[in-house]
Amino acid sequence: MSVPSNDQAPEEPPTPAVSARAIRMKGPWGPVYGPIDLDIEAGGVTVLRCPAGSGRTALLMTLSGRMRPMSGDLEVLGRRRAKDIFANAALAGIDELDTVAESVTVRDLITEQLRWDAAWHRLIPRADEADLARVCGTVFGDLPLPPLTEFVEELTELDGLLLRIALANTHRPELLVVGGLDQIANDDSRALLVQRLIALGRDQTVITASVNAVAAEGIRAELAVHNITRAELVGQQKGGE
Q1: What is the pLDDT of residues 132-177, one digit of tens each?
Q2: Crossing angle between the packed helical segments 187-200 and 129-140, to the nearest 10 degrees
Q3: Does residue 200 lie within any of the structural domains?
């Protein structure tokens, strides 16, 4: 009589959240970044360690489907077309895209986002405390929510960025891309931001960036990214001459 085998077929490794090979971006004044190779696992928080600047901003926009690389191969969560990546990614903390007017209140921003998310025929009243909790609660966690009547210019750096993340993340897509951690100057506030991203990373893949290493338990990975500054790109051009 044959004995059933206990051998199991080896599990295939999970599809990475991001697989990039030799992606490049070029603008009117020359190269912006690249070539860049990246492999980012799904889930948790991955920090791209690289200097701030237009190259880093363009790379984050590329990974979230807001820009398309001029060359190279990019796959994000199994998707290759920029519009498909866009549909499954939230992007926050990029001044070129989601800077908030300082003269508006938190209530104004929540109301605008709720109306943007709603079907065109629905009448959405001004946001109340329940709306504030629904939009911001997951992102802020145990941290106090900003008052609805507070002007954006009066918010702390941390609360301002968390609010931008909450507004971008209302649909909770698979991928959340957040601009550089270094835009928060205070060390304690930056540590709180990292902890909130780690909490979001339990249900989403979170990608962010930092100039310096992030010494925080719970970060899935920190990846050094090169070919992203003007000095590096100019060096490449000279080397190829």
Answers
A1: 999 999 999 999 999 999 999 999 999 999 999 999 999 999 999 9
A2: 100
A3: yes
Question: Which residues span the domain enclosing 114?
Answer: 18-239
Residue 13, in any domain of the structure? no
Between strands 18-27 and 71-76, the pairing is antiparallel
SS3 217: coil
Two tokens at 225?
């990214």
Beta bridge partners of 49: 210, 224
Q: Is residue 130 situated within a structural domain?
A: yes
Percent of the chain scoring above 70 in pLDDT: 90
The domain that holds 79 is classified in CATH as 3.40.50.300
Cα separation of 178 and 93, whole Å?
A: 6
Q: Are 164 and 138 in contact (CB under 8 A)?
A: no
Contacts of 13 (CB under 8 A, 6+ apart): none
Number of helices followed by number of strands (H, E) in the chain = 8, 8
d(CA 206, CA 199): 10
What pLDDT is recorded for position 170?
96
Total domains, the chain: 1
Q: How many CB atoms lie within 10 A of CB 41?
A: 15
- 3-class secondary structure, 39: strand
Q: Work out the angle at residue 154's Cα, subtended by the Cα atoms of residues 169 and 52, and round it to the nearest 5 degrees.
A: 60
Flag whether 1 is in a domain.
Answer: no
Report angle CA 12, 17, 22 to the nearest 5 degrees.
105
